[in-house]
Design a protein that fits this description.
The complex is a heterodimer of chains A (744) and B (167). With 744 residues, chain A is an alpha+beta fold. Helix content of chain A is 29%, strand content 23%. Chain A contains 19 helices and 28 strands. Chain A has a seven-stranded mixed β-sheet with strand order 11-12-9-19-16-17-18. Chain A has a five-stranded mixed β-sheet with strand order 1-2-3-4-5. Chain B is an alpha+beta fold. In chain B, strands 2-1-5-3-4 form a five-stranded mixed β-sheet, with helices on both faces. Chain B is globular, with a radius of gyration of 15 Å. The relative contact order of chain B is 0.16. Classes of the chains: A alpha+beta (744), B alpha+beta (167). At the A-B interface, helix 9 and helix 18 of A face helix 1, helix 2, helix 3, helix 4 and helix 5 of B.
Chain lengths: 744, 167
């Protein structure tokens, strides 16, 4: 059956009185995107939305959440640039969590109505046997450093370019001239020869009569007007005067507040609550709600709910993990690494043979603890059940995912659940749908009321009921030949990686055996900024540093010698080192360390310069970061994401430690789960590098992974002490040149 | 009854005397610009001004501030005539593109405003000890640059000038 694209457009034309160009983009020009089509099978199309109002205002509807990364600015920049819209006439909206903006639902529905024939603009992008891609797209996920490089590159730019062509076609038809004689600038279409011009707003409805071009022509970078410039973020003014609204700020009429405590040992269940009657006597308390593994107090003020909860006496079941401590978990990991079944990650050459004939082998083991996300806005969700429908107010990294989650718990049709998106007070993976215990609780709690109920976790609950960055142990063995050349690399670690390439090395080593063992624990884990890269970069780059020192080589030169076929990796190392003054002597009492990691499509090198306090604590004085992200859309937001990623990783390096004691999390709040603050924040220099022909890379996460090893490698250079376990707060170092001792 | 003077308005509230100011602001007065971060005065997200001094409202009972002038982030950006007018600190926050997620920034701006009003030219140690607010997005490098720019402006203005108060 032939696809009628007009039908697709008409279905979405009358929104808010304006013209809505909904465009499911696929097949951007082969010359620029072939790589990504292959590299990201199943993810090469996204729907983007441009609305043109008669007053010539262009509204870009962004299907991602703003959590500080600047997505409400960068994506509209990409669409507006391709469209040649006047930035002053561009408005931004967060996509609502409805079917209209659910890419997958739209595409799937469209495909079904076509009798499963493949519309030309969707071919190669949807597996119609399984509709897998459509399911993947049934989300509005913000994560994986994906917004700009996927939605922006695949969707926003093509949508803008398509709109531009349609507007030009409309003008040309109106003026009875050739489209090629017309041009678009600053939200107007011009015909220079006749001096005629018309605004986008005037042309919009006529433009909708044209089919969106199958392969809209994207601009070459030399023609960009917005992309590559430091456009100020659209969300910042509201974030300096208190008007920005986060989920916690939702105030629907008549709202009540719920405070919750969940079984402290993961997997525990609520048995009973002993003093409900007494608690109900407290001022403002409306109800005590017993959930499967938690208990909530609902009151007319959060403080009243929270104070009442502190007096509540819930009894939880014991679990088989009630005496498990962090040391038991690491012992379990060691046993698994000793004897567990090994799963292949990377196999190259013949590592066994290479080790058998190696002149020398070097081994080292590393480990990192669990980490909480500690987003500044404690987890919360407001839910209102009303006449068989449900409203949800929350800040989430996936509005549609949350809608589905609430609908499933509430046993409602998804279309009867309305999610109201808010700014996120920090995401970092914590607000992904996989980590939805707050959402589940909020839905169940609100189901007892006909008024809205805001379920808000205390900081203690947030710290102790997270989906943690997993604790991981990793062991290495390197084989050197008679010349000291690295010929074999063996690495075995705990837990399958996400992303899968986190433990892969960029270095040229002919024989590699990288494997993992599974060793599940009862601690829930989830995505934490940069996911598995955060720990593996520490492992890989610490061990590489050990090999460099063992070889008696400069750590930078050693790395470069193993990267002769990797010009982009070499370049970031060289640029970071040059700016950091690597070749020049460091100030007395200081030392530098370097580390490298590629993640989420970007390649990052960081040089840290450290000193010691009088108490022997590490102080990070300065960090230089060079990042090759292919192409930069907004250099200022790019730099701030890099700064942010470094500070986030530095907190983990210096302080990050979630300890398990008697099956539960010991730390509870910022006094014992410390964060880096202004006083410890180093000077940071960011070098943004571009690579022609390289796909655009992510920025939200890639700066986080290398910082741990950059710092601990500097600590080694300064003290001679190799840090193989984080965080640094557990160490006191003696000043050089005396050998450092651990003082824990 | 508890009487609070918030952003120039006097409000009578039928609330407990030990209710923290934060929850009176957020839950009773609908002033949601002041944020809850930790509840133990460890992060500074809830910072407000009490008679111009920075106070962590999550541990300040309303009984302790009944006779004082309370200013929240909503009241900072208002001039004497009641019109919206960003302070120099808020403007610096925009020009240096400081906020990311923005959640901690109300408290950060209140803390910096109080500091620079008190001391238009603080040294690094003073800044570091006064601004202990937690920002998980790591906006500290930009917070530093914005503060330094404000200090430079103060010097250029030929004498100290209130940063935290609208003129």
């Amino acid at each position: 059956m032939k696809m009628n694209r007009r039908r697709f457009l008409l279905g979405t034309t009358v929104i808010g009185g304006g013209l809505l160009l909904g465009y499911a983009v696929t097949r951007p020009p082969r010359q620029s995107l072939a790589n990504r089509d292959h590299a990201q099978a199943g993810q090469t199309f996204l729907t983007t939305w441009l609305r043109i109002d008669p007053d010539n205002q262009v509204t870009v509807v962004v299907p991602h959440s703003e959590m500080g990364q600047g997505v409400l600015t960068s994506l509209p920049m990409m669409a507006a640039d391709e469209m040649d819209a006047d930035w002053d006439l561009v408005r931004v909206e967060q996509a609502p969590a409805t079917d209209l903006f659910a890419n997958g639902v739209l595409i799937k529905g469209f495909a079904m109505s076509m009798g499963l024939s493949v519309p030309a603009f969707l071919d190669r992008t949807v597996d119609f046997a399984t509709l897998k891609a459509a399911e993947i797209m049934n989300m509005q996920i913000t994560g994986g450093s994906s917004s700009v490089r996927f939605t922006g590159e695949m969707g926003m730019r093509a949508a803008g370019a398509a709109a531009r062509e349609m507007l030009i076609n409309a003008a040309a038809a109106q003026w009875n001239v050739a489209a090629r004689e017309c041009d678009a600038r600053n939200s107007y279409v011009h015909h220079e020869a006749s001096g005629r011009s018309a605004s986008f707003g005037e042309l919009a409805s006529a433009a909708a009569e044209f089919e969106p071009p199958r392969n809209p022509i994207l601009k070459t970078p030399d023609r960009f007007t917005l992309m590559g410039t430091a456009v100020p973020r659209v969300d910042i003014p509201a974030k300096v005067d208190g008007t920005a609204m986060y989920g916690i700020d939702a105030r629907p009429d008549g709202m009540l507040y719920a405070a919750v405590t969940t079984a402290p040992v993961f997997g525990g269940k609520l048995v009973r609550v002993d003093n409900v009657a007494a608690i109900m006597q407290r001022r403002g308390v409306q109800r005590v709600i017993e959930l499967d593994d938690a208990v909530a107090v609902v009151a007319d003020n959060y403080w009243r709910a929270s104070e009442a909860l502190k007096q509540l006496q819930p009894v939880f079941t014991g679990t088989e993990f009630d005496s498990t401590n962090s040391s038991d978990i690491f012992a379990q990991f060691d046993a698994a690494l000793d004897n567990g079944e090994r799963n292949e990650d990377v196999k190259a050459g013949d590592a066994k043979q290479a080790f058998d004939s190696a002149a020398e082998t070097i081994t080292a083991s590393y480990r990192v603890p669990y980490l909480a996300h500690a987003a500044m806005e404690p987890m919360n969700c407001t839910v209102h059940f009303n006449n068989g429908r449900c409203d949800v107010w929350t800040g989430t990294q996936d509005n549609l995912g949350i809608r589905g989650r609430v609908a499933s718990i509430a046993e409602l049709n998804e279309n009867d659940v309305t999610v109201h998106p808010f700014y996120l007070g920090g995401g970092f993976g914590r607000r992904l749908p996989q980590s939805t215990n707050t959402i589940d609780q909020a839905t169940r709690i609100a189901s007892y009321f006909d008024v809205p109920v805001q379920t808000l976790w205390s900081r203690e609950e947030d710290t102790r009921q997270d989906y943690y960055r997993p604790a991981v142990s990793s062991r290495f063995r390197a084989g050197l030949d008679a010349n000291g050349q690295l010929v074999a690399w063996e690495n075995v670690y705990v837990g399958k990686n996400e992303p899968a390439e986190a433990a892969h090395i960029a270095y040229q080593v002919p024989n590699q055996q990288i494997e993992y063992v599974e060793s599940p624990t009862h601690i829930p884990f989830g995505a934490w900024r940069s996911v598995a890269h955060s720990q593996h970069s520490f492992f890989l780059e610490s061990f590489t540093d050990e090999l460099a020192w063992h070889a008696g080589q400069d750590p930078l030169q050693y790395r470069l010698s193993l990267l002769r076929d990797k010009p982009r990796h070499s370049r970031v190392l060289q640029e970071a080192a040059a700016r950091a003054g690597w070749a020049t002597p460091v100030a007395e009492g200081r030392a530098r360390g370097i580390a490298l990691q590629e993640s989420f499509g970007s390649i990052v090198a960081e040089v840290a310069e450290v000193s010691l306090t009088e108490a022997g604590e590490v102080r990070v004085e300065k960090v230089v970061c060079a990042i090759d992200c292919g192409r930069v859309v907004n250099p200022d937001t790019a730099a701030s994401q890099v700064e942010s990623g470094i500070i986030y990783g530095l907190t983990a390096t210096m302080y990050g430690q979630i300890s398990i004691e008697n099956g539960r999390v010991k730390e509870s709040n910022f006094h014992d789960y410390e964060m880096l603050r202004l006083a410890e924040s180093p000077e940071i220099e960011v070098i943004l590098l571009e690579s022609d022909d390289a796909p655009i890379g992510g920025l939200g996460e890639p700066a986080t992974p290398p910082i741990s090893a950059a710092v601990t490698n500097a600590v080694y250079a300064l003290t001679g002490q190799r840090v193989r376990e984080l965080p640094l707060q557990n160490y006191r170092f003696l000043p050089p040149p005396t050998e450092a001792v651990e003082n824990v | 009854m508890i009487e609070l003077n918030v952003n120039g308005n006097t409000r009578q509230l039928d609330i407990e005397s030990d209710m923290p100011l934060l929850w009176a602001l957020r839950n009773e007065l609908g002033l949601t610009g002041t944020k809850f971060g930790c509840g133990i005065a460890a992060c500074g997200a809830c910072t407000v001004h009490v008679d111009g001094q920075p106070v962590r409202s999550c541990v300040t009972p309303v009984s302790a501030v009944q006779n004082n002038r309370i200013t929240t982030i909503e009241g900072l950006a208002v001039d004497a005539a009641g019109n919206r007018a960003l302070t120099a600190v808020q403007q610096a926050w925009i020009s240096h593109q400081v906020p990311q997620c923005g959640y901690c920034q109300s408290g950060m701006i209140m803390a910096v405003s109080a500091l620079l009003t008190e001391n238009p030219n603080p040294d690094a140690d003073t800044i570091n000890s006064s601004i202990s607010n937690v920002c998980r997005c790591g906006t500290y490098p930009r917070v530093s640059k914005a503060i330094q720019a404000l200090i430079a402006d103060n010097a250029a203005d030929d004498g100290p000038r209130a940063q935290g108060e609208s003129v």
